[in-house]
């Protein structure tokens, strides 16, 4: 909070109140980033962006957002760091196991009727959930006819995801998740421990297409039976959330399934009426119109 | 005259004419009949006359036939025909006699009768003659007598015929005349009747159709689409038409009344239906509205359109800080400037007043400048303004203001009241709904925000962990480096030791040598001084000068040797320090005694100052202190040509903790450049090669001083500006602290020493010489992971135990086993420091599941990784393991790769 204190001192010399100025600076920074680097964070949730920017300001030892703006615009390396700040890559295998359990019991029967299955995992981050999905579908005998499109705006994490190696220290938790998600086999069948990493067997990645896609600016690229986008839109403001929801809606086949994060909802979106609930607690929805 | 009378008269007249014509016609027919009857009678009589003639002819013919000797057979027939003809003649005469009673005819008939009798007589004669056969008489009689009679008879009948024919002709003439007359009369009659009927009909038709026309013309005027007004017939006559007119008028009257009534009813019904439809239209839309602004906008649009308003505004009551205000949220054709009328306080303006009183305010007429309703073409003031409150349970929630060019009619006002009355409830509902929605949305947002924050925290944690790991790694690397360094250091140390030893030898040699050097030098000096003193006065000034030079050079040499000796001593660690109480004043005296003469000689000022607040006595090595000060001061004098040299003794400042006293030697000499400052304390190095040549000396003084200061627990600082002079400050501690400092100066060595002997890793490198780098890495990792780990196997299958044990012990794990659940638990109790347990499920005494459950119940084993070994492939069996408390499971037969992966996962700390 050193920064805010510093800003607080500056405030006395400013005509504008502190908050207002900060918002202006923030808007300018995001606009500048959009104009110069083409990355659009303008419709991200403001409190989140603020926190991340404060974070970066502290790390770069600048006192004002305008100061940071200069650095970010002049120095692509700092932009890269800020980009990484904005890209929150928190995930785990079989995250919220009940979601995967519900998917197994309520969505898999629907998928069995599809001759080929397309799944879009938007904002896949480091790919843990994508591999989880692959394991689930493998166990249900559907993986051979499935293509999973795993996308993220951050190419670094995509590279990581492509490797299919996850930290060994997390495997105890993942095993618990796997079991709670209704895992049908031994979790250890899917990986080999290798130097503090658990390397997942390559057959799991065979039907996964990793690709860069930015939900804030990019458009639909296929038609899917299932779209999973969990805990991604929480970083967006209402406007962008609505945009993304429209994107998903137009990318889903009729009766296609949308899965979102446990803390998210479609209640206050403009597409609310286009879906029916498959499992309201696990946030699984079916497109009905 | 009544229509009936007219008709009666007309018909009666016609009837009279009919009767009259009947009589006329009958009379004429009778006349005609009479004429015809006369003619007929005469015709009959004429026929009879003809018959007489004809029969007479037949008689004469037959008679002639008889006379002419007919064949016997025919005589009968002839006679018969003659007889018949005679009979017929008699009958005809008789008939004629009866019919023709005219005198002239009667005479003729009588004549004829007489002739007939005569002829009959003649006939008898003839017959008699014939029978007698007197033919000649007969013929004569026949041809004369008979013929004469016959001729006469024929003559008479001819006369009769003539009379009769004459009568017939007369009668026919008469008859023709009569008929001609009749035709004339009929024609005249018909013409007369036609004319009369025509006149009568015209009169009647005229009089009837005239009135009818009047009625029908009125009736046709009736337009049935406007039954509320019907035309009336003017009553002029008292006849039936007059009655019809009266009746029609009455009917029209009642129809009009009825129509009016109906119209009124219909209007009312329409109004009611309009009202209910429109209200329903408004009310039914409410449930779809869940936002107040939308509701207000929709409401004002709808209501204004339905009620025919041309202007409308919708105010919502809102809490604004402490006061309540009515804020404009929607408008219909609202063209007011943005600031005006945007919000009102309660009671402010008509809107506020309306809200406060909860009463409809109606302004009719509206003042000209009140408001203007604008369109693109112009603007005009409205005629009527209505301000209505929408309340719910007595509280006004909104105010609706409407204005119109036309005054609102009753129905519109009714509609508005109804709708606005309803609105309150719905506004309240919407407000509540919005509150709930907002709360829900906030909740959702908070939820999302929480999730964001939690993820960020997780990320930060992750980052911290990564940083930590990196640090650890770095630490490990640095440990490694340190170890390597340590090795190098040890090697170096050994070398250094060897060097030190040799250097010590050197130093000792040097020290000894300098001693050896000093002894002859001393005698040399003494002798030179004695010579210079010239006690015997036998030396020339020149010789004295030589002797003095020998002395001073020798002294320099001695100093140099002393210096070298000192530095050698320091380096050889042979410099001894003796702490004692030293008076500060002694130090001052020493400096004065030593350097005042030098100062005087060099004509440089020398100031010594002892600051107040100094302890009188400090504990240090007096000799070394004096030596340091001497070095510093002589340097100062050496490099100072003009100005002053000063010594300031004072209490050390706070910046240098632990230091007690500072001795600052300041000169105004040539100074030292910055780059030279760094190595002036280094032995055998001089700031400038030229310096020693110019100023002389070994240049070891500062090095020795520094080492000595260090020995005394202090240090020397220097500040200098080229050409301005230098300041050397010696800081000295209290002796106790100095002793501590000495002790603390070697902590690193001890730490480095400790790490010895742990470095066994490279040895493993040699254990798997034939493997690839990666495999080697893996093996190494496994051994690091498994080394000295206590792994328990509970299984009754010895082959399995053997295989596992072999695999694990290979990597240095300590493996213990039990053959059943009970033993397994015992084993755990005996060795509570187990790191991992493999538990077969199908084991005797106490099966694996029970054993796992039991272990989990035991204190301290809640988090012990237990891997279940199961030969069953069913999901249900696996679930049982997990439910019993197993951390994970692995299927038999065991895949070693999988086994090591799972061990690595569960041993990961």
UniProtKB/TrEMBL annotation, chain A:
<dbReference type="InterPro" id="IPR000780">
    <property type="entry name" value="CheR_MeTrfase"/>
</dbReference>
<dbReference type="InterPro" id="IPR022641">
    <property type="entry name" value="CheR_N"/>
</dbReference>
<feature type="domain" description="CheR-type methyltransferase">
    <location>
        <begin position="33"/>
        <end position="266"/>
    </location>
</feature>
<dbReference type="GO" id="GO:0008168">
    <property type="term" value="F:methyltransferase activity"/>
</dbReference>
<protein>
    <submittedName>
        <fullName>Chemotaxis protein methyltransferase CheR</fullName>
    </submittedName>
</protein>
<dbReference type="GO" id="GO:0032259">
    <property type="term" value="P:methylation"/>
</dbReference>
<dbReference type="InterPro" id="IPR050903">
    <property type="entry name" value="Bact_Chemotaxis_MeTrfase"/>
</dbReference>
<keyword id="KW-0489">Methyltransferase</keyword>
<dbReference type="InterPro" id="IPR022642">
    <property type="entry name" value="CheR_C"/>
</dbReference>
<dbReference type="Pfam" id="PF03705">
    <property type="entry name" value="CheR_N"/>
</dbReference>
<keyword id="KW-0808">Transferase</keyword>
<dbReference type="Pfam" id="PF01739">
    <property type="entry name" value="CheR"/>
</dbReference>
<dbReference type="InterPro" id="IPR029063">
    <property type="entry name" value="SAM-dependent_MTases_sf"/>
</dbReference>
